[in-house]
Amino acid sequence: MREREYRLARRAVLGGMLGLGLQATLANNEAMAAERPEGPLLLPRVHTRREWGARPARRRAEVLDRAPDHIVVHHTSTPNVTDYSVDAAYDLSRAIQRFHMRTRGWNDAGQQLTISRGGHIMEGRNRSLTAILSGRHCVGAQALHHNDHTIGIENEGTYMTADVPGRLWESLVHTCAWLCDRYDLNPYQALVGHRDYGRTDCPGDVLYSRLPALREEVAGLLRFPSRKSAPRIDTDDLPADPGEAMPSGTAHPERHDR
């Protein structure tokens, strides 16, 4: 089956199911998470801003009536904690938002999604979850000069030499599969590291080296029909970019989307 035919057939089957998942998530995320059937392609458990106690954003995020074309993998450049609880995950989300708003002076958290070392997935910037689930793009502040077409996932920890915890990795794979399905993206082409867009260590040497495996695992979950080449991005003359969520900070955004 050709790739486009495969995608159309797949979205016809999953579209209604995921659309219902959107309504359930926004209406009662905790109840949906407790009752959802097993299956890697169903809507993952995403903890909302209300759940983790987000402060109000200074400005509503811009939502574009189109999908992003790349998913950018980050690390937070924070300690590799061993507290894998949901409470620790909520503390992380609040700390990132506080840093971005108070220290960076941004309107809100920069990234659209955050995954804790315990594998808990959390909404980041305001309007991110509703945008994803409606197939649109919430503009963040996570990849310099590329915020208008990329969605960012912050992964808790520092992965220059340390390996990625299994729980985090599993959630990252499922989250990327979900995003690729929602946005009709080819995982072999769409999944990139932050350093592909700027001079930064993010997402760390170890996590960056695992991006080929991430593409393969996501493609496997999606039953993607054939292997496609990894993205070719010209890395010459890339702008300097701090990259991490804290303390160095997620990438400086363009002025209009802070």
Question: What's this entry about, in short?
Answer:
This protein has helices at residues 3-35, 49-52, 86-103, 128-133, 166-183, 187-190, 205-209, 211-222; strands at 46-47, 63-64, 70-75, 113-115, 121-123, 137-138, 150-155, 191-193.
Radius of gyration: 17 Å
- Which oligomeric form is depicted? single chain
**Helix-strand topology string:** HEHEEHEEHEEHHEHH
Number of strands: 8
Indicate how many domains the architecture comprises: 1
| Overall geometric form | globular
| Biggest sheet strand line-up | 1-5-4-7-3-8
In the CATH hierarchy, what is the superfamily?
Peptidoglycan recognition protein-like
Give the second-level CATH assignment, the architecture. Answer: 3-Layer(aba) Sandwich
What is the residue-mean pLDDT, rounded to a whole number?
A: 83
Question: How would you portray this structure in words?
Answer:
- This protein is an alpha/beta fold.
- It has a single domain, classed as Lysozyme-like.
- The strands form two sheets. Strands 1-5-4-7-3-8 form a six-stranded mixed beta sheet, sandwiched between helices. The chain has a two-stranded antiparallel sheet with strand order 2-6.
- A hairpin with a 5-residue loop joins strand 4 and strand 5.
- It starts with a helix and ends in a 36-residue tail after the last helix.
- The C terminus is likely disordered.
